[in-house]
């Protein structure tokens, strides 16, 4: 199954790097540059040090493992998305050489939580909306299962938590994923993979997406 936006994107061209003139408190990512000091129980303090904190426009996100049951067991829906940050690793000095280009990265359905999304009901609602938008399946919020607590991806830098969820779409026919109209969704490809195969691909680095691996492990833990 592929989205209707399938195309032959072969490169992402940087037209301008305006990092030197851009404010750090505007744009999709907001960088706060802070001077901090540790306060201790005995009343003393550490030396002053700098901290950079990266915030998203919305604080947190939801990741959804869309799965179905088939003759060979559980299968998981993934999306191949354009990922500029991963792609622009090219040419940088890497500790471990990596021949992959990462123009696209394979991962599960995910999206930012909105201001109106409150509590567990809000998580389920946003998960259902993302499944409809990115995978084409019409699911009800109450069908979404939460897979435990949210987690930080890089707590030393990013304030964002990702809340893992799952939904079973066995026997359902999807519609065409609408997407959000962004150029970053150009050429997005949707596919199904056996869950154990996908887990092995995460561990080998073929699918280098942490939320995908963690959601798979949490779902499998529930099945045991």
UniProtKB/TrEMBL annotation:
Task: Kindly indicate where the leader peptide sits in this chain.
Answer: none
Keywords, in A-Z order: Hydrolase
Among its keywords, does the record have Hydrolase? yes
* Keyword Mitochondrion (UniProt): no
Which InterPro entries does the protein's record reference?
Answer: NUDIX_hydrolase-like_dom_sf, NUDIX_hydrolase_dom
Span of domain Nudix hydrolase: 57-215
The Gene Ontology terms for molecular function here are: hydrolase activity
Which domain of life, per UniProt? Answer: Bacteria
**Name listed for the protein in its UniProt record:** NUDIX hydrolase
